């Protein structure tokens, strides 16, 4: 028994354990999601994160140790983003035809995301640091973190806000679009990708290929739009409100 | 599968290089997506094996966000203190963004197809 316990103590601190934990937690969350007929409210990312967090708290493991194993999964985000070129290429004839509509809708969406997030946080008394961390929350994590840092926010807080935004959009995006009667897959994908970056795109890809391609496109374009627009908006807002 | 995984990684690497060298405001992988897209545009078709490789990556894309999401444990205290402003900001802003983008795209898209 002593041997077993010693081996367990050793293994529970290795990358193998935390990599396996990440995959098992996701399989479990995804099983529930599939069993419930892919109900967006049972978002598998949310389920898996809650399971992993519970295990880390129970075993007293810090995030750095966990990430040594989980980084192998995290790394694949880059190649997956590159792979979005394939659905984009398949939808290219649609994208070209609606280029102006896409550009205008995306800029409107990007501005809405920035202005509503900062306005609500400011009205409810969030500090300047929190404001700068929440402003780029609709953008894919690496860009959002870089922008937050530039504005004086906390990049690691931004990463969390980005993920929560993604999960929330993936959970409720379809409901909002159904409510206002937007049935067109291009418009649905563009909306989800602008608001909820990669997590929204992952959800859109499961539902419809056109929606997935437009979501991936929106994710890339919104990263660019926010990186260009937000620093300018931020300067204006600081002059006006002294944030 | 391996040749196309290599191609995907090469596109990402090229993206990171160009972004770093020119200090562009987009992430390397997003520019890598543009590079792979341009390659496909030049070739004029998607090779079956690339389709397989990219499907494999994209089918499990949700999984890839779990490690970053688990980072929430680093900020329990700050999130607890600013729960109301941050929670409401995320909810209102995300729904408003989906609403505005979706409605505008449908309206402009219809005009385009009518004209």
Question: In a few lines, what is going on in this structure?
Answer:
The complex is a heterodimer of chains A (243) and B (115). With 243 residues, chain A is mainly α.
Give an account of the 3D structure:
The complex is a heterodimer of chains A (243) and B (115). Chain A is mostly helical and 243 residues long. Chain A contains 13 helices and no strands. In chain A, helix 8 crosses helix 13. The longest helix of chain A has 33 residues, at 209-241. Chain B is mainly α and 115 residues long. Chain B has helices at residues 2-22, 28-43, 48-59, 66-70, 76-81, 83-114. In chain B, helix 1 crosses helix 2. The model of chain B has no long low-confidence stretch (mean pLDDT 91). The chains are: A mainly alpha (243), B mainly alpha (115). The interface between A and B is large, with 113 and 73 residues. Chain A: InterPro entries: CidB/LrgB. Chain A: It comes from Donghicola eburneus. Chain A: Keywords: Membrane, Transmembrane, Transmembrane helix. Chain A: Its main location: membrane. Chain A: It is found in: Membrane.
Record the SSE blueprint:
The complex is a heterodimer of chains A (243) and B (115).
Chain A: H1 2-11, H2 15-35, H3 44-58, H4 63-75, H5 77-83, H6 85-90, H7 92-97, H8 99-123, H9 128-134, H10 141-151, H11 155-179, H12 185-207, H13 209-241
Helix pairs in contact in A: 2-3, 2-4, 8-9, 8-12, 8-13, 9-10, 10-11, 10-13, 11-12, 12-13
Chain B: H1 2-22, H2 28-43, H3 48-59, H4 66-70, H5 76-81, H6 83-114
Helix pairs in contact in B: 1-2
Transmembrane segments (chain A): 12-33, 45-66, 72-89, 101-124, 159-180, 213-237
Protein name (chain A): LrgB-like protein
Pfam families (chain A): LrgB
């Amino acid at each position: 028994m002593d041997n077993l316990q010693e081996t367990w103590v050793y293994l529970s601190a290795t990358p193998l354990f935390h990599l396996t934990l990440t995959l098992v937690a996701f399989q479990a969350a995804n099983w529930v999601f599939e069993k419930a007929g892919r109900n967006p409210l049972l978002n598998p990312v949310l389920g898996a994160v809650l399971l992993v967090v519970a295990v880390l708290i129970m075993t007293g493991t810090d995030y750095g140790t966990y990430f040594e194993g989980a980084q192998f999964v995290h790394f694949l985000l880059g190649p997956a983003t590159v792979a979005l070129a394939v659905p984009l290429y398949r939808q290219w004839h649609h994208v070209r035809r609606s280029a102006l509509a896409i550009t205008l809708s995306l800029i409107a969406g990007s501005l809405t995301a920035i202005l509503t997030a900062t306005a609500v946080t400011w009205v409810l008394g969030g500090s300047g640091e929190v404001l700068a961390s929440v402003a780029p929350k609709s953008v894919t994590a690496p860009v959002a973190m870089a922008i937050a840092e530039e504005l004086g926010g906390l990049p690691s807080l931004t990463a969390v806000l980005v993920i929560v935004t993604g999960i929330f959009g993936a959970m409720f995006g379809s409901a909002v679009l159904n409510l206002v009667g937007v049935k067109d897959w291009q418009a649905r994908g563009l909306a989800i990708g602008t608001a909820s970056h990669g997590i929204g795109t992952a959800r859109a890809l499961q539902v419809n290929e056109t929606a997935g391609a437009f979501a991936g496109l929106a994710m890339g374009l919104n990263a660019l739009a926010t990186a260009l627009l937000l620093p300018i908006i931020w300067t204006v807002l600081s002059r006006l409100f002294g944030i | 599968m391996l040749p196309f995984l290599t191609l995907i990684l090469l596109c990402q690497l090229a993206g990171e290089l160009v972004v770093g060298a020119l200090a562009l405001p987009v992430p390397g992988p997003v520019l890598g997506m543009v590079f792979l897209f341009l390659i496909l545009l030049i070739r004029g078709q998607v090779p079956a094996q690339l389709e397989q490789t990219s499907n494999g990556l994209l089918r499990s894309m949700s999984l890839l966000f779990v490690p970053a999401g688990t980072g929430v444990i680093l900020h329990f205290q700050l999130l607890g203190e600013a729960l109301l402003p941050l929670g409401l900001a995320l909810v209102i802003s995300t729904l408003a963004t989906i609403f505005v983008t979706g409605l505008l795209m449908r309206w402009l898209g219809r005009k385009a197809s009518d004209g």
